[in-house]
Design a protein that fits this description.
alpha/beta, globular, single chain
Length: 310
């Protein structure tokens, strides 16, 4: 799916929690794909292409990202963002969804699953924030700059310069092979920030609103979660090391962890084919409790470069 086709499927949805842009495409059981800070729904475009014809993919742009604006008074905390996604599902007539989150979107999905488990058919988390690692140490300087209002200008400068965006202090640190990132996807991810100063300020506001206490409050709900859960973790991520994935695996009952050797933060972007294969297996197993026990203890059918962690 190219940029034009992706944008053609995007629409604005008014909810009681605010207006949000989302791509709604395909048919079948719905999968809700949630991105993280700085980027937008285009992060999921390669995965959506892999799942074409198999799933209805619902891909929101979080407030202040992509085509979604945020109001100055809007609550951008993790619970509020989780509530906004539930409101979006209400407006789309979705009672339960297969939830997939990455980066900050993974933190939002943890809160959503803890507070509204009845709305989550399955949960999949790729490299993302976890309790006591929000924000990760690598990103705390950015949070401090955001508190002073100094992060937005740096973010806009990076978004306007493709070479800078691919560098180690841009999106490059989130990618295994930044030099191979398609220029069209890079532009789709960053052009909204480069085009509007208020977009960078919105990202800054959301960053400041992130609070480890909000994620910690989700711990009891996650510990009681009875939703099939898959963790897909790139092993070379400087933000979210695999130790955090193992912590989630211990917390969430029967969670299954698959490590992608060499993967970094943007697993959905660079390892879309592998992630799609793992999701298909996860969703299929979740539909058949009779076979779930045997499949979760094996590595049958997993793509090359993956490792199931018992």
């Amino acid at each position: 799916m190219n940029v034009e086709s992706w944008n053609a499927h995007r629409r604005m949805v008014a909810t009681h929690a605010g207006e949000i842009a989302c791509v709604d495409a395909g048919e079948g059981p719905a999968a809700l794909l949630v991105h993280g800070l700085v980027v937008n729904g285009h992060l999921w475009r390669p995965l959506a292409a892999e799942l074409g014809g198999e799933r209805r993919v619902v891909v929101p742009d979080l407030p202040g990202h992509g085509a979604s604006r945020s109001r100055p008074e809007q609550d951008l905390s993790l619970p509020a963002l989780a509530g906004l996604l539930v409101a979006l599902c209400d407006e789309l007539g979705l009672e339960s969804v297969d939830v997939v989150g990455n980066d900050t979107g993974g933190a939002v999905c943890q809160v959503l699953a803890a507070r509204h488990p009845e709305r989550v058919r399955t949960l999949t988390l790729t490299n993302c924030d976890t309790e006591d690692n929000l924000p990760p140490p690598f990103f705390r300087a950015a949070t401090e700059r955001a508190l002073r209002g100094a992060y937005a200008p740096q973010l806009r400068a990076m978004a306007a310069d493709p070479a800078r965006a691919r560098a180690g202090r841009g999106l490059g640190c989130c990618l295994e092979r930044p030099e191979e990132l398609d220029a069209g996807i890079l532009d789709a991810l960053l052009s909204p920030i480069a085009a509007r100063e208020d977009a960078a300020r919105d990202v800054e506001r959301l960053l400041v609103a992130l609070c480890n206490e909000d994620l910690a409050a989700a711990t009891p709900g996650l510990a009681a979660l009875r939703v099939p859960t898959l963790l897909v973790w790139g092993t070379a991520d400087p933000f979210f090391e695999t130790s955090w994935a193992r912590r989630l695996q211990r917390l969430i009952p029967d969670a299954r962890l698959v490590e992608l050797d060499g993967g970094r933060l943007y697993v959905p972007l660079e390892r879309a084919a592998e992630l799609a294969a793992l999701l298909r297996e996860h969703w299929a197993v979740s539909c058949s409790s009779a076979t779930a026990e045997g499949v979760t203890k094996a590595n049958h059918g997993f793509p090359m470069g993956t490792r199931l962690v018992p």
